[in-house]
What we know:
The complex is a heterodimer of chains A (165) and B (729).
Chain A: E1 15-19, E2 25-29, E3 32-34, E4 37-43, E5 47-56, E6 61-67, H1 73-86, E7 92-101, E8 104-111, E9 114-120, E10 127-128, E11 135-138, E12 144-147, H2 155-162
Antiparallel strand pairs in A: 1-2, 2-3, 4-5, 5-6, 7-8, 8-9, 10-11, 11-12
Chain B: H1 9-14, E1 21-27, E2 33-40, E3 44-49, E4 54-59, E5 63-70, E6 74-81, E7 84-92, H2 96-111, H3 147-155, H4 162-179, H5 181-194, H6 201-249, H7 252-256, H8 261-302, H9 304-311, H10 314-351, H11 353-358, H12 362-414, H13 420-462, E8 483-490, E9 499-506, E10 511-515, H14 522-529, E11 537-542, E12 545-546, H15 552-558, E13 559-562, E14 571-572, H16 573-577, H17 586-595, H18 599-604, E15 612-613, H19 622-636, E16 640-644, H20 652-666, E17 670-674, E18 686-691, E19 694-699, H21 701-707, H22 710-721
Parallel strand pairs in B: 10-17, 10-18, 13-16, 16-17
Antiparallel strand pairs in B: 1-2, 2-3, 3-4, 5-6, 6-7, 8-9, 8-11, 11-12, 14-15, 18-19
Helix pairs in contact in B: 3-13, 4-6, 4-8, 5-6, 5-13, 6-8, 6-13, 8-9, 8-13, 9-12, 10-12, 10-13, 12-13, 17-19, 19-20, 21-22
Main location (chain B): membrane
Domain ABC transmembrane type-1 (chain B): 166-445
Membrane topology (chain B): Multi-pass membrane protein
Amino acid sequence: MNDTYDIHMLEPERVMFSRGQGGVFQGVINGKPYEELVVFRAFPFLYTTQYISIRDAKGDELGIIRDIAQLDEESLREIERELQFRYFLPRVTKVGSVKQKSDLWLWELQTNLGPTRMAMRNLHEHMQFPSGNRIILTDINGKRCEIADWQSLDSHSRTQLTDVI
Amino acid sequence: MSILEKLPDKIRAQMSDEPLFSAKTDLRNNGHFGEQWITFTEREILLWETDGLQYFNLKVEDLKEARAVNGVGGGTLLVDTKKGPVVVARYTAALSSVFGFAAKLLTAIAKDEERPMASEKEFPRYCPTCENPLSEGSQVCPICKNNGKVIARMLKYAKPYKLQMIAAGFLLIFTTLVELIPPYLTKVMIDDVLQPKNMGSTLLMVVIGLGATALVMSVMQTVRGLIGVWVGSKLMGDLRKDIYSSLMRLSLAFFDRRQTSQFIGRVNSDSEAMRQFMTDGVIWVSGESLRVIAIFIIMFGLDWKLTLFALLPMPFMVVVSMKLWPKIGRRWYQQWRSIFRLNVLVGDSLQGVRVVKAFGQEATEMSRYAEANREVVRHNIRIEGLWQGMFPLFSFIAGLGTLLIWYFGGQSVLREELQLGTLMALIAYLTMLFGPLQWVSQMINWASNALSAADRVFEIMDTPSEVPDVRDPVPIGVIEGHVRFDKVTYGYEKHHPVIKDINLQVKAGEMIGLVGHSGAGKSTFINMICRFYDTDEGSISIDGVDLRRISQSDLRKQIGVVLQETFLFDGTIAENIAYSKPDATPEDIMRAAKIANAHDFIVRLPDGYDTRVGERGHRLSGGEKQRVSIARAIIHDPRILILDEATASVDTETERQIQEAITRLVKGRTTFAIAHRLSTLRNADRLVVLERGKIVEVGTHEELLAKEGAYHKLVEAQQELSKIKGVEG
């Protein structure tokens, strides 16, 4: 039996994910079916597709997937979708404008999930720089967007960003 | 507030039943940004496209339960049906409260329970005009309010010093006027004395005049400077006091989410920036504008045509200033942020200096600091550089006007249409214009620095306390100590409740032991009694009065705490014991210390009760600090007592002494005690076992042991861990 004090890594071939009729993420783990599964990134900033903790609906950990790339095609597609749902972090493709109107900072953004706008009370509590050129933006209501690499954005976006970074 | 958002007519028209709930999602079902509408009636759940197309429906009779499953930055409304779970709608974090409520309502419909009432807190509010979020408890939209208000609000601080400011203003006007005399005297000297070679008394008079103006000017500058310093220091004192009192007013929840070291910088540097703007800034602006006007009047009087040349570069300068203004503001903010990060870094590593040293990480800390420091340097160069580059540019452009005057004025002098003295005076006045021109850029600097500082300061002042006092609190006097929890739910972040649906009745004088794994919600439980946070749902009452209706100062008078982290303030032991009762007599203090088993060790200290403790003073051991803080609670004489792990990390003998002290302390008071070591709770009348925020068992030690439930397991686990000291102790 597994040691409860050890991290349980799941074997990719003993894991299968799919989407239920109701659109809920489900799967079979070590031969046991689960009609609802929840995914957690152990390192949401550093490793977005690795070290994914798979938990049942109650939140108990069933195991960790070292790298989702090792999964079969359907499982991979579904876990990727589920990660995107659970970690709602649209990737910014273009920064339309960053304006400061009295005490709110307003961002007009284009993301891979469509256009959006964010409002921040200030920048020092709402912009995170986890590493390198990556920026995580959080707005007043907790909505988050990610700029994967601000240096590689188009020149308009970079100009918008120069005075806020 | 209704629980209905205004449904588009196209959708409403298709519904036969009156909707119980309707809301707009901000994500489409595929997780992309977009809008869909969710509505539900007693019979079915419907999801619509905004154009009225039905996307999805589900019969309520198939429904077992609904859940809002919150992810990171967004969430999903899930319903459990007989055929398994179904995703209904997805949303971003902005709407979690709305959908949290929707889930509760749906569950109530499915189970046919009492429908929950929506509170205003559940819905984010938006400004009706610009659709940007409104902050909690405020009706003013920050965007629709303009910058002028910030300045006006800042200037309000100058109001008590009106007289002094006016005096300074008058002095300034006077100095300005006096300052304008010397060039005119020079003109007189050249035209009436030097050129006609008219050696008479005039030369002496002019020189005396020059000397006199110089003297008057320096005297007045001194007086004005003194007034400025006086007003400035007072102003800054007021500001600092206000910022600090706003900080103290804020609830714990505000500080939970922020690093506290940042506020040191805020209180000091932000108030300095505002002070600079208000005293130097305002006086400068008014003084210099006056000077500009006066100079132009004199110049026009001397020769209006030539003066027009001096005006030529002005429009250009105004345009450039306007363009640069927002840029400078942002760069100031950047600069501030980098300093802020540096301060946080220093604050953190100094607070944790023991850990740094213990792990030998000084070098890492230094390199972290070096990096942050580099950022500050870079931003410093950027902002200072910008304005250093701006001033020469401005002077150069203004200088072009001088060149024109030299050229055309020179011609006029050669043609003898203009006197040499007048030309010299014009040039001199024009040079004097450079001073005010310098302030254009300097002022931009100050003003934007001050404005961003003011924004941050007012942000603190405007943050509503999350545990507001009611307007007319119920006077409670000396309470008996009945405490009642009624369906209490609370989470530090809403929708992640840490304690859920807690129901508990505590009699006056009863001692309740809180037991559970770490993270079970024990500390949150007692934080709720202290009203450090307000319940999200349900209520807590003391002697039948809702906590929220008792004024906080009254409440705190009745509650005493001995916390896990004993914090002693910088001061003497006596002062620390008498913290909550500054008028305590030395006898009171000693009596309290005696009960707390602290008297003996205190008297043995070389400085006795006058021993300085706190950050710089004498170092007390953990157990000694504990006993001092118990004495502090004793002198407070509370009706309700809270003990959080009071005996953690002390040796057995000390523990016995503290235990004794506590036994004496709890007598006759309603007590809530938390301890990891279950043995310390053996005096408790009842034990409450918490698991994942819920009460799972309540009863005496014996009852719970006999039950062989969660408590039994905890006890067993602990006995295994330390065979030496069982619960039976």
